[in-house]
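Appendix B, record 7
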Amino acid sequence: MTENGSIVIVGAGQAGGWAAKTLRAEGYAGHIVLVGDEPHPPHERPPLSKAVLAGSSEPDVCHLFKSDAFAALNLECEPGERATSIDRQARTVLTDRGRRLPYDRLILATGSRVRKLVIPGADLPGVFYLRTIADALALRERLTTGARLLVVGGGWIGLEAAATARKRGVAVTVLEAADRLCARAASPELSEYLARLHAGHGVEVRLQAGLQSLRSAPDGGIVALLADGTELAADAVVIGVGIIPNVELAKEAGLEVRNGIVVDDQGRTSDPNIFAAGDVTDQPGARLGRRVRLESWQNAQDQAIVAAKAALGGDARHDPLPWFWSDQYEANIQMLGLPERWPEAVRRGDPASGTFSLFYLKGAEIEALVSVNAPRDLRAARRLIEQHKPVRAADLADPEKNLQKL
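Structure tokens (predicted):
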């Protein structure tokens, strides 16, 4: 890449922002165009279901850069502009404003969108999703003391919204179609802990609960009809039933797409001039032994850094040890690793105390860890995993054993 070149980044979320920052940090002085369809500068999403929804912080807490640091990146950035097509032969990106943006390298950080619930009444006023800053602010207005919130979907976003609503004095019911909470991403032991945690804070958790329809109530609220015929009244409904990777732009351009945009360990797509990073990618996952698409804060940042360096000709590689985290009530929950199947856990500490860890072994090595308010356990486990150190289950379970010395 030369200083007279141009790099276009499509997507102004966390991955897009980190890609732009990395290009400048690596010394690239050429033209950078950042295209994002939301009316905000580059931002991250975790605070939306926590501090922003709670009202303890305003949306600027999500911004990746302070205004002066963002200006120093010297980007061409027009928030609210959407990329509509890619001409790979001409190396241009067309936007909904009719602009044609030439590129030498293109980085796709298009992220994902909420999965919509397709039932009668899903588009009623008072039915919300929680993905954007606008979503969080709109839902926040409904979370007043004494209000009733129905959460559809017992995954991470739904549970974080439930916890935030309870802190604001809202009555909460969670509906989950599966037989346990966070079944797609969490171990059975963690699902059980989450159910107890929320029940202990007054949330009604209904498992294996199907939602059939929503309708307006005479009092201005919403009535939910469940598959078993039960009716539940609410003042607001928030739906969190997963996300869909935004692969359409890449697919229409003829890039290889499977579970996401297919990339190598440098974020390079099937076109050597186009890179991708974040929620939208289907990546090798050599450490895990299988290709994966990771929906996490860590992946959006780290993969974007690697893709930006690779776009400049660097040899950085991305082979993540997946890390996820969630704050619910007083619990800081962290997960390290992502097994295809969850073996029986080795428990360290007592869940009733609010501080404990669950280790998942593959042979004599740690494959994954869940820690609740136990960051030291996570730090030690990370080193043990990365160094492929054999461990004994008895040592992990013994709180008198110093994990740092293992």
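Remarks on this record: DSSP finds ten helices and 25 strands in the chain. The chain has a mean pLDDT of 95.
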